[in-house]
Amino acid sequence: MLRFVGRRLLFLVPQLLLAALVVFILTSLLPGDAAIARAGGESASPELIAQYRAELGLDQPLYVRFFDFVGNAATGDLGVSFSTSESVSEILWRTAPVTLSLVLLGFIIAILIALPLGIVAALHPNGWADRVSLALATTGVAIPNFWFGLILVLIFSLSLGWLPTTGYVAFTADPWQWFLHLLLPAITLGHALAAELTRQLRAALGDHLRRDYVRTMRAAGLSEKSVVGKHALRSALGPSVTTLGLQVPIAIGACVVIEAVFNLPGLGSQMVQAVFSRDVQVLQGVILFTVVLVVVASFLADMAYALINPKVRAE
Amino acid sequence: MTTSPTVLPDTNLIPVAGRKQKRRSLLHRVFMRGPGMVSIIYLVVLVIVSIIAPYIVPYDPNQIDLRAVLQPPSPEHWLGTDDLGRDVFSRLLVAGGVSLAATLQAVAVGLLFGVLPGVLSGYFGGWFDTIVTRVADVLLSFPSLILALAIVAILGPGLGNAMFAVGIAYAPRFLRIVRGQVMFVRNETFVEAAISTGIPRPKVIWGHMLPNAWPALIIQISFMLGLTLIIESSLSYLGLGVQPPQASWGSMIGGSKAFIEIAPWLVLAPGLVIFFTSLAFNTLGDVLRDEVTGGRGQ
Lengths: 315, 298
Hints:
The structure holds 2 protein chains of 2 kinds. By secondary structure, chain A is mainly α. Chain A has helices at about 1-30, 35-40, 45-55, 60-75, 90-125, 130-140, 145-160, 175-210, 210-220, 225-260, 265-275, 280-310, 310-315. In chain A, helix 1 (about 1-30) runs antiparallel to helix 12. The model of chain A has no long low-confidence stretch (mean pLDDT about 80). Chain B is mainly α. The model of chain B is unreliable at about 1-20 (pLDDT under 50). Chain B is about 65% helix and about 0% strand. The interface between A and B is large, with 51 and 45 residues.
């Protein structure tokens, strides 16, 4: 196991460097730079801009700037926002918990939907659960998240008044309000994520239930609970863990829109704001952070898969 | 969503002596299945209506009428009016053309930037393949909406820019499919035979190898159209796609979410159309996949 972790970690470093390179290239292409912004816009005198450029190291060649960027990022220094002068790491510190809470609750809801539905659907092909899972899988992909979120707000907040419409309360301030404020956004996210998960679990479990070892266990008189719960499900869960890992980028992408619908002050809202104000530094920091999240999540998913399935470790 | 490389099994090649057997086209077979037929009819009607929309709308879609704001659906205004008194039904029809054209544009950009590198990468292999697939993998690890946001930040808000961005974000998916298929057939006898008869390499790739990638590519295109429509409407909802007074389905929802409590029809109608259209593309993709791989896929 340790060798597997080590080998996978070796992969992680070039992956992160490449991701940083892509982020760096993308944001270097942005029109205008920090020097112009600090000097007060395009109308500032060229001398002043040149002076700031030298101060900020923007007159250095691109590769020097890239290594500076990576070195600074590794120590947590992601620069300062052009528009608010707040440091980018502070912005991340403030906004990341919101998005991470949403993603976490979204995944919990997705698993709460997908696990029972996938199991019942696999046990009774063409039964009602199978039909529901198929309908969910289709609608989960085709419904626009922001619209589904608005409909939920319309029904549960505005008409029934059960839940708060928008806004965010920190977990440390009031856990119950935190949960209530995040419930509708998390259902919106969870519904989208559950689609693929249910589909995957149903297929994997259905496949295992048709295998010889399951037939042998049933013939040997093992209870159905033990056959399905202890043996077939465990084998079928492996690929589902990988699916969960693969869904992290989808979830984070979906957060951008969901946060906008529910006015959550998370990474997504920050990113949209940065696009509108053309705040390169913030955009760079937030995108880099999300990509690191995705890469680390896929690493953790691989680890979890290896824990469940010893065959992966040996490869 | 991602489709593993699939190769068309020739189950429909039935040899019948002395009689000319006509192999039914994929499109025909898809049309013969209920969900496939419904999807195709819906999409064809939608495309036709979107094209002729500017000539058949009952009202000018951008005509502001402040005496008739936020009216509920009625015989005069089938889907009511928005906060500026504009007829929602007319706007919905015209916005359809905008949304569909944008979706097509994004998928075309994705194909343009995905197919050629995919072919070259699969054909030549070696270090070129390693670099191309590494870059594609990194791009795939970016959430596509976030990659699109970054590119919109560079190019500025606007539907054309946004869709270019989405196309770039999706190019790696097409690249992977084409690369896989080209690698799959690279060492097959028919490719060797074609090369040994002196057919130029580009022609071998285009005429002999690429056709094997078409079925998988068409399936992916169908799913991608559905997904791109959602992304387009999301970007327009955020205000980063289509710019006013022009409207797409997404921006219609974004523009009227403040009135959701007093005028829910403003949000319901465009959302339902996005849902049905995306559903049609996805269903079409499912049916195509079933027909190509011969069975209900996973």
